[in-house]
Amino acid sequence: MELDKIEKLVEKYLEAETTVAEEKALKTYFSEEKVAPHLEEYAPMFQYFSIAKEEQFTQQLKLDTLASVTSKKKFNYKWLSVAAAGLLLFGIYFGNVYRENQIEQEKARIAYQDTKRALDLLAENFSKGTEKVAYLNQFEETKQKIYNKQ
Question: Angle at Cα 30 formed by Cα 29 and Cα 31, nearest 5°?
């Protein structure tokens, strides 16, 4: 009868439905040397809990070190937020400078193309003028020939 009760308690324990008194009963059962063969796999677990309960931490903690670590974390977070705000302002400023630089470059490109068109037009008109001067030179030569023959 007791073995059946222990099996049910193990199932409840694995489902996390046991009470403190039931867990104590399981610990006392598995701490005995006489455990049912099909339940021996659970024995190390309950024995570990008994051993772990008796363990104690014996080293000294430096509380001022712990306090300085927490204060440093707060200090770093403050400076981190200041650095983030500075980086944001830096990005906004240089983003605007870059945008203004792009606008100036676009204006310069448009001015270059307008100047190039104007100079091309001027060159074309000079070419026409040069052709007319060539006709005038030919006219002058012909006129000189006519006057020279007379």
Answer: 95
- What is the C-alpha to C-alpha distance for residues 10 and 5, in angstroms, rounded to an integer? 9
Report pLDDT digits (tens) over 40-92. Answer: 888 888 777 777 777 777 788 676 655 565 555 555 677 778 888 899 888 88
Whether the full predicted model's pTM is greater than 0.85, yes or no, is no
On the CB side of 52, how many CA atoms lie within 13 Å of its CA? 7
The distance from CA 107 to its chain's CA centroid, rounded to whole angstroms, is: 35
